[in-house]
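cron nightly-structures :: item 1 of 1
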Amino acid sequence: MKILVLNAGSSSQKSCLYEIPEKTLPQQPTEPLWEANIDWSGSTDFGEMKVKAKLEVKLPGREGAIAQMLETLSSGKTRVLQQLSEIDIVGHRVVHGGAEYSQATLITPAVKEAIARLVPLAPSHNPAHLEGIEAIEKILGKVPQVAVFDTAFHSQMPKAAVVYPIPYEWFEQGIRRYGFHGTSHKYASGRAAQILRKPLAELRLITCHLGNGCSLTAVKNGVSIDTTMGFTPLEGLMMGTRSGSIDPAIVIYLMRKYNYDADKLDKMLNKASGLKGIMGKSGDMRHVLQAIGEGDEQAQLAFDMYVHRLRASIGSMVASLGGLEAIVFTAGVGENAAAVREATCAGLEFLGLKLDKEKNLSFPKDMDIATPDSAVRVLVVQTAEDWAIACECWYSRFK
């Protein structure tokens, strides 16, 4: 079956087409037949395909751009289909599914209404998901579409981890920890079990999704029992441009002392904080590490703060799990920044964790980089979010 995946962000649209056998789901990711990327930031550089063809076009809104993108599936140098009707199902990453969706869900008018209702909780993402869903409806007609929610994997967290210590009435109004990056955490934990050759149902794992956005999840017996992101993706770890958790009284102080309003606070905490806020130049870990090599003290401070908060949060996840078999690093920083992995693991040696420094520097991919005698395994898993979405679509047709 042919599965189209749309992974919409606030400023980009990543898409790919997979062909998966109808009777057997491969145990590991397969290469997509076709890939494309749209940048909504104003650039007209459109559609970088598997064959590396590029099209220069004026983007006529999301629906028009998606339509042009899909045309490349069945025409030109990037053609992999005779006609678009060969697409069997379309999967969408949806950032926020609230408390009501605990698994990938076939999209209906009611599901669309729920995604729209949650726009205030994910204003940079849920509107883009809706536009993508509606564009597919117009272009491909009645092809089945599936929503794969970032929040779904965290839906089984115990209430003690979900409810905030504020008046309980606000929990009843929907203010609670939802957690995010769920598709990535779910995939990384499943892949970790394969690498360790142990049943996922017997493992206690900490999955570390470290990219521009960062979150940890404590996975026990295949279930998320705790996570660092909360009501929004702003809570938790220090990130590329997001502050992560801070004393909430700072916000009150800035409002009273400097007349900060909601928009100014939002911009500061989400776009001008984290690594970028401390270094002052960039929130990209690659730039931070380069600047450290050039003797930049602010960059060193940003790195040290990042690792300090990461270690501290890992410690809290270990406490939630009551033990630990493996730490799993994934996403852009987790997979590629050996210095981050080394510094993080250096603070966890009290757990019996021993990092093999040579393996850590060998650009590991889907690999255990702990020493043979380490009491805790350390894994690097290559993220495969689009493949995970495609798998959810496959299950939705055959489960």
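cron nightly-structures :: done
Residues 2-149 form a domain with the Nucleotidyltransferase; domain 5 fold (CATH 3.30.420.40).
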